[in-house]
Design goal:
- With 364 residues, this protein is an alpha+beta fold.
- Helix content is 40%, strand content 22%.
- It is built from 11 helices and 16 strands.
- Strands 5, 6, 7, 8, 9 and 10 form a 6-stranded mixed beta sheet that branches. Strands 3-2-1-4 form a 4-stranded antiparallel beta sheet, with helices on both faces.
- α8 links the parallel β9 and β10.
- α10 runs parallel beside α11.
- The longest helix has 32 residues.
- The mean pLDDT is 91.
Length: 364
């Protein structure tokens, strides 16, 4: 199942396709007893997708068979034993994808000429993604972080390994020659290349960066590089060949401190915006401003959900079973704000006080 949403992947998912491109969404659960219902709900929502394909006169028999085959193949790839909070299946003639999300989704089936991506976009933003670069004298490993986990990222030039060149860092450490290792010009050139490779990654996918390594390695990287100077340094060696859990345990305190610092900054910006009359709150006000590209900063409490319907002038509260109910309006607002260049941040529940779970700073 897929987890990481890169800009290139998102662009590919949004590419128009021959009708029908089917998006199937269902909430899932991480723990018992709630996860006992997941297999039944998944089978039911897939059955509903097939029913809609059967009933749609715009779908030919041949194309329906192709999409059903893709849905069946996708089902075999679902691993409910390792479920998160939401599951999304995309299927079209000749292709399918299965996405596991650390954010709940409404149960729904959508037939269109593009896949429904707003829930993926919102889930990624909610995870507050970050990069971890682990360096040593002979290797640079990149880790993709988000939520409470990291996994190795094979992207760009990473992982990078320095050619041997009669180089034995373990022996040099044993004889106490580590400092000279990082004064060696070949080592410095390798770390300079790692900094350049990191710059390329950040240009394509900007996010906070944490760098791990021995103290001497971090100091040398600061001397020869430029991108890593603005990163958070975590003095912890041995992680270029480490496990994801070892890397997460090493960076977790720094990641959480950075998150807390960001929350303080966001609340300060929101308070200042009130005084300038550039403040907006509530789904109706934020939805209208988002569509007009007026939102500069959007803050959303992590578990904020609301179901609404559009009465023509405003969004008003609705029940989930209402025919015209919009259960993922929060995710719609998040995606719209991101598409118009806003900075979107998720904050702990209760952070926004009387702002009713969602607030923003307006551009004008």
């Amino acid at each position: 199942m897929e987890h990481a949403l890169s800009p290139a992947t998102l662009a590919e998912l949004r590419r128009p396709r021959p009708y029908p491109a089917v998006s199937v969404l269902t909430p899932t659960h991480r723990r018992e007893p709630d996860n006992a219902q997941d297999p039944v709900r998944l089978r039911n929502v897939l059955a509903e997708a097939k029913k809609q394909l059967e009933a749609d006169p715009a779908v030919t028999k041949e194309r329906r068979a192709q999409v059903v085959t893709q849905l069946d193949q996708a089902l075999t790839e679902v691993d409910l034993a390792h479920s998160e909070d939401g599951l999304v299946i995309f299927a079209a003639p000749g292709e399918h994808q299965v996405w596991s999300l650390a954010r709940s989704v409404p149960e729904r089936v959508v037939l269109s000429d593009t896949f429904l991506t707003r829930n993926l976009v919102s889930a990624q933003a909610a995870e507050r993604p970050f990069w971890v670069l682990s360096v040593s004298a002979d290797r640079a490993t990149l880790w993709n972080g988000g939520g409470d986990r990291v996994r190795e990222a094979v992207v760009g030039a990473f992982p990078m390994t320095r050619a041997a060149e009669n180089f034995d860092p373990e022996r040099q450490e044993q004889i106490g020659d580590t400092p000279s290792t990082f004064r060696d010009e070949r080592t410095r050139a390798f770390l300079r290349a790692a900094d350049g490779a990191m710059d390329a990654v950040l240009r394509g996918s900007p996010r906070p960066l944490f760098v791990t390594g021995e103290t001497t390695a971090l100091a040398t990287l600061d001397e020869v590089g430029s991108v890593v100077r603005g990163a958070v340094h975590v003095p912890h060696g041995g992680l270029t060949h480490g496990t994801p859990d070892a890397v997460w345990q090493a960076v977790r305190p720094a990641v959480r401190e950075a998150a807390a610092r960001a929350v303080r900054q966001i609340t300060g910006e929101l308070e200042a915006a009130r005084g300038r009359k550039e403040f907006a709150a509530g789904v109706d006000e934020l939805w209208r401003n988002a569509r007009e590209a007026r939102v500069r900063l959007l803050a959303v409490e992590e578990n904020f959900r609301v179901t609404v319907r559009d009465d023509g002038d405003h969004l008003i509260p609705a029940e989930g079973g209402d025919l015209d109910a919009r259960e993922d309006i929060v995710d719609e607002i998040v995606e719209t704000c991101l598409e118009t260049g806003a900075d979107v941040r998720f904050v702990p529940d209760g952070t926004l006080g009387d702002a009713r779970g969602i607030a923003g700073v307006l551009r004008y």
